[in-house]
Specification:
Elements: E1 9-13, H1 31-36, E2 41-47, E3 57-64, H2 67-75, H3 86-99, E4 104-111, E5 114-116, E6 119-121, H4 129-145, E7 150-152, H5 159-170, H6 175-186
Parallel strand pairs: 3-7
Antiparallel strand pairs: 1-4, 2-3, 2-4, 5-6
């Protein structure tokens, strides 16, 4: 039996200048930020606790090939396009928190290098999409397990429901028709 894998992560604030001033949503990006954070990353948006001592701290954990571009999409989501995109949903949610005098920061996961079956993960490997996605999901599971501390803002998508909606759109029919067909094919009548 192999030993378990321990993933050690330190969350580091995205800063606006070399002096270390943390970025707070919805500030504009500085030249320093555009240079330093145009990198692949696993990140989390964190809504700082309110003065009334909320029991859970809202967080959204994600990943991106270029962190500054990913941040920009949340800062200025498109007005048209997908009805409920993650960028639009986060932007609107963060605007609600800002209206309540809450501060939203973004942090980058600094993952100590580790291996799984001889395959390296951690800092220096985040440019590889599958490794970045794997780390994002490990950190989501970790945050979900600490549910007393964190309120995850990530939406869990059922892949079958997502595919059903996509098929319905392609064949220009109502999703209920596709669901009924799926049920029929997954539970065929006895021969």
């Amino acid at each position: 039996m192999a030993d378990g894998v321990t993933v050690r992560v330190e969350w580091r604030s995205v800063v606006t200048e070399e002096s270390g001033q943390a970025y707070i949503f919805p500030q504009k990006f500085t030249r320093y930020m555009r240079t330093k954070y145009a990198v692949s990353a696993v990140y989390r948006w964190k809504v700082l606790r309110a003065l009334n001592g909320d029991s859970k701290q809202p967080v959204y954990i994600g990943q991106g090939e270029d962190l500054i571009r990913r941040m920009q999409r949340v800062l200025t989501p498109p007005k048209e396009g997908k009805k409920v995109s993650t960028n639009r949903r986060l932007h609107d949610l963060f605007q609600t928190y800002v209206a309540q005098d809450r501060k939203i920061v973004i942090e980058v996961a600094d993952v100590e290098p580790f291996e799984v079956n001889g395959i390296p993960f951690g800092r220096g490997t985040l440019h590889e999409p599958f490794k970045r996605l794997a780390l994002e999901n490990i950190l989501l599971v970790t945050a979900q397990r600490a549910e007393a501390e964190w309120e995850l803002l990530n939406v869990i998508v059922d892949p079958i429901e997502k595919a059903t909606l996509e098929v319905a759109k392609l064949i220009k029919t109502h999703p209920d028709v596709v669901r009924a067909a799926l049920r029929r094919f997954s539970n065929p009548p006895p021969a």
